Amino acid sequence: MEERVPGYCALCISHCGCTSIVEDGRLTAVEPDPAHPTGSAICIKAMAAPDLVYSSERLTSPLRRTTPKGDDNPNWEAISWDEALTEISSRVNAQAAADGPESVAFSVTTPSGTAIADSFPWVNRLAHAFGSPNTVFATENCNWHKDFMPQHTFGTPLGMPDYELSGCILLWGFNPSTSWLAQARAIKTARKNGTKLIVVDPRSAGFGKGADQWLRVRPGSDGILAMALASMLIENGWFDREFIRDWSNGPFLIRDDNDRFLTEADLIAGGSAESYVAWNSTLDRPVLYDTESATYRDPEGRIGLSGNHTIATIHGELHCRTAFQRYSETCREYSGPEIETVTGVSPTQLYETAKLIHQYGPLSYYTWTGTAQNTQATQTGRAMALLYALTGALDAAGGNTQFERPQLNNVFGHELLSETQRGKTLGLDERPLGPGTMGWISSRDLYSAISDGSPYPVKALISFGANPLLTKPAPHAADAALRKLDFHVHCDLFMNPSAANADIVLPVCSAWEREGLNAGFQISQQAEAYIQLRPAVVEPRGDSRSDEWIVFELAKHLGLGEQFFNGDHEAALRHQLEPSGVTLEALREAPRGIPLPLRTHYRKYRHQGFNTPSRRIELYSQVFLDSGYPPLPEFIVEPAKNSYYPLLLTSAKTVQYCHSQQRNLPLLRKSMPRPLIDIHPNTANVFGIAEHDEVVVTTDEGVMNAEARFNSSLAPDVLCSQYGWWQACNQLGIKGYAIEGRENGNYNNLISDKRIDPISSSNTLRHSYCKIKRRAEATTPQ
After folding, report:
1. Quick one: 675 and 555 in the same domain?
2. Are 183 and 156 in contact, with CB atoms under 8 Å apart?
3. Residue 748 CA to its chain's centroid (Å)
4. 461 with 585, same domain?
5. Which of 97, 230, 297, 419 is the least buried, fewest Cβ under 10 Å from its Cβ?
6. Residue 309: inside a domain, yes or no?
7. What is each CA distance from 600 to 39, 89, 190, 311, 394, in whole angstroms?
8. In percent, how much of the chain has pLDDT > 70?
9. CA dihedral 133, 138, 143, 147 (to 10 degrees)
10. CB-based contacts of 632: which residues, under 8 Å, 6+ apart?
11. Could you tell me the residue range of the domain that residue 112 belongs to?
12. Angle between helices 547-557 and 569-577 (to 10 degrees)
C-alpha cells in the first residue's frame, strides 16, 4: 500500500516542502510539494533520503567502548539506553562536582546544514540548565556574521531579501543553488520579472553565470571591495543622503583627539554622556541629539551630514568631524587605482556595479559563508552592512526586511545560566563581542582547555552530530584533544572519525523518523507566515532516537527534568506554540502546515528607531572602539603572491553534500565520487597538470589529495576545493580517505587554527596560500 506523507526536508536551512512516498511502511522516494511555499523543487540530497534511512551503516544501538582510547579497535559493545544514560549522567555530574559544570563542554552541529535544527534549541538549553557556558557550534564559520554581527550596525540580523519587490539583488559569497534551493527559486522568479542581479564570487558559479555584473573577487578581499564600492557610491552621490542623515549616526560629531563621540558632557558640566552632538547647518551651531526620544532637541534647521568643525567645550576647543565624514574618508583609502590588484575587480566594473545599484533599487542582498571564513570576517561584514545602509533600502519594500513570522516561546534557556557561569565562557575575555556572548565557543578554545588546561581544564564533552576532524581547521589538534578527554559522548546517525575515541556513542534517528516543528520558512512573507509540524514518515531504525528525546531523557537522569517538562515532549511543544495561537492538535490535523494571516510592516524604524546605542544605524561604532577594535572597518592589504606558496586557496560547497555528511550514499557518490580541486587551465599547464590528474595541494599546515578539474572562471592564481571527505561508499566500491597523512583527502589539513578573526574567531577556510603538484611528482610529506 502506498502512502503519500506531506512534510518538509530537514536536511538543511532551505526546508523545502516535500512529499514522502511510503510503500508498506518503507520510505521509497521523496518528491517536491508545489503547494508548499518552499516546495517548488528539491535537491539531490532529499532524493537520496531512502539511501540515508536504510543505510546498513546506520547506528541502531547505544555503544560503549571497551578498549582504551587510541586503540585501533574500540571493540564497541551494545548497551541499553538505561545503561548509557545512567553512566553518562553519573560521569558528567561527578565531573561537574569535582571541577565545576564549566569543565563539561557541549557540542552541536550546524542547524543550517544538518537535521539538528529540530533539536538545536533543546541542546543549548541542556548545556545552560547543566550550568556549562561552553557549547561548541560552527557559528564563527557560518551564521555569526549574518545573524549577529549586523546587530552592531542595524540592531537586527541581516534579514531576508524581499525578492518579489527587489529592483536589484546582490549575492555576495553566497550560492543558493548549492546551499539554499528555496532562495534560488525565488531569485530565479525575480530574474524572470526583470530584477537585476550582481554576484560577488571568485567563481562564476550558480547565478554568477548569468548575472548583470559578476565580480570575480580575490578570496579574502571582500571587505576592501565593499569599501571601494561604498566610496564609488558616495563620490558620485549615488546614495540615499536623507536616509543616512535622518536614520544613521552619520551626522554625529567625533572628537579627533580621542576618536569618541562629542556629547553634551563635553559641552557643559553635568551634561549627559549619552546625548550626542551634531551640526545645525542652517543655524551654524551645534545641536544636541536625545537618545531616549531619538530626536534632536532643537529640530529647526538642517543637520549637516559631512564636515569638519571646531567646537568650544569645557576641555577647550576641539576639532571634530562627522561620523559620515570619517566613514567617507576611510572608504576613500580603499579606492585607489591599485584596487584591481588587491580585489581582482577593475575600477570600470566597480563604477558599473555602483551605477547598477543606484539605478535599479531597491537593493536586497544576502551573504553567507563565502565572506565569513577569513581573518577579517567581522570587519568585512561591517563593511558590507555599511555599504547596504547607503542604499536606504533596509526594511523597505524590496530591500532586506524582517518578515512577520509565527511567534514561539524561546526555549534556549539563556536565563538558566547564571552570570557567574556566563563569565567563564571560553574565549569571552579575549573576544568580548564574539560568539562567547551567546555561550558559543570556538573549537580552538575548546582544544586549548582540554589539551593545555587553559584558562581552565575541560575534561568531558557531550556532542550532538559534530565532526570537527573534517569540518574545522587543524584536525591534528582536534584529534589530540578528543583523545585526552576523560569522558566523551557522541550522538549521531553514523559513526564518524571524531567519534572514534568516544566512550559512549548514541544512535540518532533521521529526520524522516521523527516529528519536527518549524515556524517560518524565511524566503518570503508567505513562506515566513507558515507554521508546520513535520510528521514522522517511518518508524526509527533499531533503537535510534531523536536528538530531542536524548536531551530530554538525559536531562531527567541529570536531575534537570523540571527544566524539560519532566520529559513530556507534548507539553514542551505546547509551550513552544503558545504565543503563536496555533494548537498542537491543529498542526497534527494539517500536516502540510498552516499559513497565518501575517503581514509585513516595512520601515519599522520610523516608529521605534533601531535597536542600537544611538537608536540609529551605527556607521561609526563606539561599542567596537570601547572593546579595542576599529570603529570603522579597517583592513590589512595582503600581498598578492607568496614566493613559496604562489596560489590562493579557497573552498566552496557542492549541492551533493552537506559538510562532512552523506558521501556514503550511492545516489550522491555517483554524482561526485571524489574530492576535486578546481584550477584554471592555464595554471594547470604551467604546473604540468592535465584534467583529472591526481594532485597534491600543500600549505604551510599540511597536504591534501584531490583530482584536478579545470575551471576557466577562476583567476589564474586561485584554486578552489571542498572539505568533508572521509567516508567510503561500500555499495559502489569507492574507498574512503584518510584524515591525515599521504593518502588524506581532508581539506582542513591545509588550514591553520592559529590565524583567526580577532572579533569572531573565524578562520581561513576560504583564504590560504598554497602550491600544487601532480601526485606522481610530489614528495612524501614529512
Report:
1. no
2. no
3. 18
4. yes
5. 419
6. no
7. 22, 46, 19, 44, 13
8. 99
9. 0
10. 326, 327, 330, 619, 620, 621
11. 63-71+88-144+407-595
12. 110
